[in-house]
Amino acid sequence: xxxxxxxxxxxNKPPGKSAIIGPQLLTEHGSLLLIGETESGKSVLAFDxxxxxxxxxxxxxxxxxxxxxxxxKPHFPxxxxxxxxxxxxxxxxxxxxxxxxxxxxxxCTGLELGDSLKFVTGEERPLLFHNPPxxxxxxxxxxxxLLADQKPEVVVFDPLAQFHEVDExxxxxxxxxxxxxxxxxxxGFAAILRVPFSxxxxxxxx
Length: 206
What we know:
It is built from six helices and seven strands, in the order αβββαβαβαβαβα. By secondary structure, it is α/β, with parallel strands linked by helices. The chain starts with 5 loop residues before the first helix and ends with a helix.
């Protein structure tokens, strides 16, 4: 736990977290929440971001057009390529295959991603941010082991609701976010979480 004296903080500005996506949209070991209503395209957006991070390319191909010295600079720069692990719990292998067909022509013509972008989909073992009482399958241990084996720099959890068993409409979600932070500290990854709009209000109450 970092502890600073008042004198230290007065005389020395602490270094900020370096960013993977700017401007400070996703920092090293930080979290990015993709929030929206059901069927609003959050998963498609998550795929797009995953490809951009794996390739080290600006998000969405969006560049500034203003004539103020920023023309041609990306709105959301990706400062470096990073190994991305996309954990999908909805599309399955066939659905991921079909969606990837849409992205490869756009981003990967003549390129191979290698280990830069991997998908976990159709996983039969439960993967959760906690071990529910009496659950012998140890889903938290399964997730912990997966992260230790793959060593990703960015992990997409799609959707967040499939990685816990608490009521998303209560402040219990803060416990889930704390467990995510614990895993991030242990394995050194940044997280992208696809979440429904409905969970945001309970989170800001605590």
